[in-house]
Design goal:
Layout (H helix, E strand, L loop, with lengths): L1 H21 L1 H4 L12 E8 L4 E8 L9 E7 L14 E4 L5 E5 L12 E8 L2 E4 L4 E2 L18 E3 H4 E5 L16 E5 L31 H17 L4 E4 L16 H20 L6 E5 L21 H14 L5 E5 L20 H9 L11 H6 L14 E6 L7 H17 L3 E6 L13 H9 L5 H12 L10
Parallel strand pairs: 9-16, 10-11, 11-12, 12-13, 13-14, 14-15, 15-16
Antiparallel strand pairs: 1-2, 2-5, 3-4, 3-6, 6-7, 6-8
């Protein structure tokens, strides 16, 4: 009896912990109810010109206050409560539609451009926030180095993408022959730009990892601002990818925290980078980077639960955090490889390791590949995912390769299928092929596949597309591509 009772209590405890962990995704970016009355229905903080900022909000009812006033407090990006001793930067009479104006000042990393602003009512002598603090959402008004050159619809990582390992110095040399239009912002660790919560594990995967960017300290923010301002103003870079496959926490050495904490850390760093870039180049695009784990929904307690958040959940959580603080025009970079990576003959999975399982992952949209990639634009067309203008965000394929292990013809045919999938989705604006022989997958192009790659996007494309369909044994791509 005692043993049964102990087991029952233990099971109840496990179920309680699991329930708590399982709600992490849904609570990210939520706004706690407050006792002040008149919670925020909507709010925004925008530059009215290069020198002035306006905060405005609509409250759900008349706010209850000690003194009939509402106050605006300036917080750092990593602050989630009003610091002791802080003074408001603006105030107005309590109303359901408060509007407050204040000067921007300079563009320093510790100044107002990179801050967030909390509407506060005094209740019982306590400062009570009425909703989520708002960031300045239109830093592009300040841009003085705006430029936009045509981007190729098809290229390779070597030709178009530069991995930028930041240092926080803001003094990097940027020869135009090296710095391409697309820059992926990474951090090898060290200096002030490494997040203080990022820890090197005793044992880590073979793949090279990068440390989470640091917007959790003043020095980290300053380093991000220095580097991003420098590159946005002085390089050919016009598209910036902040991190690599950021839904994979082990890539960032920060798998030892809650998903909510992880999301806040990344969103803080992304917002700082975005503001620094857009305040220099108004036409720049700033992307988040995700892998191909689309909708796997690992439960709490599963070995992979703290390894990654699937893309659909990550996008939802990230959008919730960003929208709560003021929507900005972030964009999306994805990696729709074959499943598994080492097997290119996707139309016949009989020869693939765990072929039946992999085929099921694609059919059920658990994993993202070029075979089912139409689900990504469909997901991004949802209202909560759209940009400030209500338009779907830009999508690029910044990493994709096809194994050559099954032969030259298989690789060439799979490449045709992938290109068809990418080009039939109008919001996919660029495709970068990764020719790589490392990490267990050789995606270097055989002469046959190189011939196909060169023809894609040219008048000769149709000949190769027809050949590929015949080789696969189909009459139209809809038979193998969703």
């Amino acid at each position: 009896m005692r043993r049964t009772r102990v087991l029952s209590l233990l099971l109840a405890l496990i179920m309680s912990i699991t329930a708590i962990l399982c709600i992490e995704y849904s609570t990210i970016g939520s706004i706690e109810a407050n006792a002040a009355g008149g919670t925020i229905a909507s709010a925004k903080c925008v530059l009215t010109d290069a020198a002035n900022v306006q905060y405005s909000a609509t409250l759900s009812g008349n706010p209850k206050t000690d003194d009939g006033q509402l106050y605006l407090y300036q917080l750092k990006t990593y602050e989630y409560a009003i610091p002791a001793g802080a003074q408001p930067i603006a105030s107005c009479a309590a109303t359901t539609k408060p509007v407050m104006n204040f000067a921007l000042g300079g563009r320093e990393s510790n100044g107002r451009l990179y801050a967030k602003y909390a509407l506060v009512a005094k209740k019982g002598g306590v400062n009570t926030m009425l909703g989520a603090p708002q960031y300045i959402s239109n830093p592009e008004i300040l841009a003085t180095h705006t430029h936009r050159e045509p981007r190729p619809a098809k290229t390779t990582q070597h030709d178009e993408l530069t991995n930028l390992y930041i240092t926080g110095s803001g003094e990097a040399n940027m020869p135009t022959g090296y710095c391409h239009h697309t820059i992926q912002v990474l951090n090898r660790g060290g200096n002030g730009v490494t997040n203080p919560k990022a820890v090197m594990p005793d044992t880590h995967p073979v793949v090279p990892q990068t440390f989470m960017l640091n917007a959790a300290t003043d020095s980290g923010i300053d380093g991000l601002v220095r580097d991003m301002t420098n590159y946005a103003a002085n390089s050919k870079g016009q598209d910036f990818i902040i991190g690599n496959e950021v839904n994979e926490r082990v890539w960032n050495y920060i798998a030892w925290t809650s998903w909510e904490d992880y999301m806040n850390e990344y969103a803080q760093a992304f917002r700082v980078c975005y503001t620094a870039i857009k305040s220099q180049n108004a036409d720049a695009k700033v992307y988040i980077s995700l892998d191909q784990n689309w909708n796997r929904n690992r439960p709490a307690g599963h070995v992979e639960y703290y390894k990654y958040m699937d893309c659909a959940d990550f996008l939802t959580a990230f959008a919730n955090v960003i929208n709560a603080g003021g929507n900005i025009d972030w964009d999306l970079a994805i990696h729709p490889y074959t499943v598994p990576l080492t097997y290119a003959k996707f139309w016949d999975m009989s020869g693939a390791p765990d072929g039946a399982y992999c085929a099921k992952q694609i059919k059920g949209n658990s994993m993202m590949s070029f075979q089912n990639m139409s689900m990504v634009p469909a997901f991004m067309s949802k209202a909560g995912m759209k940009n400030r203008s209500g338009q779907m965000r830009d999508i690029i394929i910044n990493e994709f390769g096809v194994s050559n292990a099954q032969g030259a013809d298989v690789q060439a045919a799979a490449l045709c299928a992938a290109y068809y999938s990418f080009t039939k989705n109008a919001n996919v604006t660029q495709f970068m092929y990764l020719s790589n022989a490392g990490y267990g997958v050789d995606s270097t192009l055989t002469p046959k596949a190189q011939e196909v790659f060169n023809a894609l996007g040219t008048p000769n494309e149709a000949n190769y597309m027809n050949w590929a369909k015949s080789y696969i044994g189909i009459s139209n791509w809809g038979q193998v591509i969703k």
